[in-house]
Amino acid sequence: MITTIVFDIGNVLAEFPWRKYLHSFHFTEETEERIAKALFMSDIWRESDRGAMTDEEIFETCRKEIPDLEKELTAVWEDRIHIVKEFPDAVSWIKELKEKGYRVYLLSNYAKTTFEEAIKRFEFLNYVDGRVISYEIKAIKPEKEMYEELIQKYNVNPKEAVFLDDLEENLEAAKRFGFVTILVKDREKAREKLNLLLKGNWEG
Q1: Domain range spanning residue 91?
Q2: 0.70 cut: is pTM over it?
Q3: H or E element, residue 161
Q4: How many domains are there within the chain?
């Protein structure tokens, strides 16, 4: 029996439209692609979620990749905290699950600076039972430490929990602990699958 629902944040409860954000600067196609590869598509962006590097160190690493685009990169970097937008139905989704008696947690990769901004803006954070955020424990999904922290901190039984994430690799890691998983590519379909699962009509 499912007792617990675990959500990722990005692209599950909040939109992360980084490409649209880049478009808003009206760079040339070449410039936009170079910034995308140096920042959003780079390993350093994922590592920023680990919380082991300062913002200055992360920016400098990216700058060295495209030194001729320092001005453009700086503009993109300085307003990055506003990229992620809460989905309009995030609160109602969580409240609906809570009203039905489910425990709801967050398990998400997030950098310190951007999450501190998210705390001010994301209403759904007020309705969950707890959260494990990557920078706080210096680990990132799909590393096992993230899942272990959730299980131990909140006494979560993976066999009674379903985890929703937009990346297959994160779900595969969760499955190794026994979680039921739902891949979120289409949010409406993911919500339908969750509802069927909770009614006992979907096996995952």
Answers
A1: 4-15+84-198
A2: yes
A3: strand 161-165
A4: 2
